[in-house]
Amino acid sequence: MPKAAKQKKGGGPSGPYDRKSKPAAGGAAANTNIFKFDKDFGQHILKNPGISDAIVDKAYLKPTDVVVEVGPGTGNITVRALEKAKKVIAIELDPRMGAEVTKRVQGTPLAKKLEVILGDVIKMPEMPPCDALISNTPYQISSPLIFKMLAMKNPPRVAVLMFQREFAKRLVAKPGDALYSRLSVNVNFWATCKHIMKVGKQNFKPPPKVESDVVRIEPLIGSARPDVAFEEFDGLLRIAFNRKNKTLNAAFAIKEVLAMCERNYKVYCSLNNIPIDESVSAAGTAGAATAEEDAAGGMDVDMEDNEDAEEEEVLGGGGDEMEEDEDEDMPEFFKQKDEEDSAGTKTPARNPKSKVALVVKAKVLKVLANTGLGDKRARQCDQNDFLRLLLAFHEEGIHFS
Ligand SMILES: C[S@@+](CC[C@H](N)C(=O)[O-])C[C@H]1O[C@@H](n2cnc3c(N)ncnc32)[C@H](O)[C@@H]1O
């Protein structure tokens, strides 16, 4: 578990993952409003005990379970989980809330089962290992929290989480649905997800602007977990969903994407002792064409001629406009290691004339053609299509993380 400040009686030192801190306040804040709730922290406290009960009930906790609760606030869900589980690790950004939840159980048998970690759960290098994750999620961290959980090598058995309704719908969206996204594919690939209940805004204090939903997510664990690296699968999805309405041929025609494939291919070759021909040919020369044709197996496909790729050019072709708000980090993802590859060598990644660039481009073309997915759009593909595509790229030595 990462080292973070643990909450002592009545509030303690801030942890290393803080975004900002406020002075601790005493008293039962939820009832007396001693301190002002901070909307920047998504502080909408559950005032309907029935909902707190339902969240904990739907986790089907065992007495041996370790539970992580993100954002305990004043402890409405925490106390219920403490009654059913062996231990609750409550991760709270706001020290005032950390003090509240600690006070709430002070002097009761539940106190020794509670550990409060002050800090930002998203900035923690790893989430503490646990059997169950529960949260009335601060909405601004919905997406990173899900990704953090799905990326865990040993994820919890179950997560019961409250989200904004729109976000919850994205989790269960299917191919073809308007809300289908990189998030939907990841959740359905690494877990099963079920809608549990709707929660109206009147159940919170202060009421949020939007309605909420509770979902139950069961990550695939042990041998059921797909045998691919999370970062690889997600890396492929980032490319595909950068323009989810464009064909995969167009998504992979973006120059930053090809440059990234080239960088990763070079790393793959150097790790596997595969010689790389770095020679530079004049564009359009016989040498360049041969490299491309060799790798493509003589296929008559040209990504640049594809209708969607042309549209990219008209739009500027930079690949840095987002359709998905969870993909806001996409440009950085493409630009990573732009100057140097991980072996520290300068990479002429953007030089279209380098032979290795042509080989990589041809490999990409070959995979898209052979899988029959090049003409499909990300919004039409299900998780099995993406897995098939990823494995075909791996066969060619093309990686995404
Ligand atoms: C919606 S409130 C839920 C409070 C309580 N669980 C309830 O249901 O009444 C969200 C809580 O998450 C905390 N929080 C916000 N961002 C956080 C972060 N990045 N890491 C940990 N806690 C966070 C807030 O301070 C707040 O206490």
From TrEMBL:
SMART domains: rADc (SM00650). Residues 51-221 form the Ribosomal RNA adenine methylase transferase N-terminal domain. One of its GO terms (cellular component) is nucleolus. Residues 291-330 have a biased composition (Acidic residues). One of its GO terms (molecular function) is 18S rRNA (adenine(1779)-N(6)/adenine(1780)-N(6))-dimethyltransferase activity. It catalyses: adenosine(1779)/adenosine(1780) in 18S rRNA + 4 S-adenosyl-L-methionine = N(6)-dimethyladenosine(1779)/N(6)-dimethyladenosine(1780) in 18S rRNA + 4 S-adenosyl-L-homocysteine + 4 H(+). It comes from the Eukaryota. S-adenosyl-L-methionine binds at H44, L46, G71, E92, D120, N136. Pfam families: RrnaAD. Residues 1-25, 285-330 are annotated as: Disordered. Its EC number is 2.1.1.-. Keywords: Methyltransferase, RNA-binding, rRNA processing, S-adenosyl-L-methionine, Transferase. Specifically dimethylates two adjacent adenosines in the loop of a conserved hairpin near the 3'-end of 18S rRNA in the 40S particle. NCBIfam families: ksgA (TIGR00755). Belongs to the class I-like SAM-binding methyltransferase superfamily. rRNA adenine N(6)-methyltransferase family. This is rRNA adenine N(6)-methyltransferase. It comes from Podospora australis.
